[in-house]
Amino acid sequence: MSKQAETPVASPAASVRLDLWLWAARFFKTRSLARQAVDTGKVEVGGQHAKASRAVRVGDGLRIVRGEEVFEVTVLALSDDRGPASVAQTLYAETEASRLAREQLRATRIAERNGYRAPEGKPDKRARRLIKALGDIDAL
Hints:
Layout: E1 16-17, H1 18-24, H2 31-39, E2 43-45, E3 48-49, E4 55-56, E5 61-66, E6 69-75, H3 85-88, E7 92-94, H4 96-113, H5 125-135
Antiparallel strand pairs: 1-4, 2-3, 2-5, 5-6, 6-7
């Protein structure tokens, strides 16, 4: 049976490196991005900043900041292999408050974009002069 045909199972190890678990749980695309996020303080374990080599155990609470999104999750299983997204989602459980806050933030961003209308074409000669004048206050 090939390795891809098998369903990846969480490893029976007692702990896994934090950066490796974040990569396997698909919070970050590469392990180096996960390490960089941990090093810059965007990942907290139990309310404290951690090193990338910190051991993650089942039951640990993580707070992960990725862009504008904030995830508060509890570790349910350990894995050091990056598998399909459906398997990665079984490695953690996101708190209800975290999920609702992310959905509300997403709705706010969508509402802010509703009033924006992209220009239909290139600016004409008069509009180009006005745009140029914005950069040079003395031009008017």
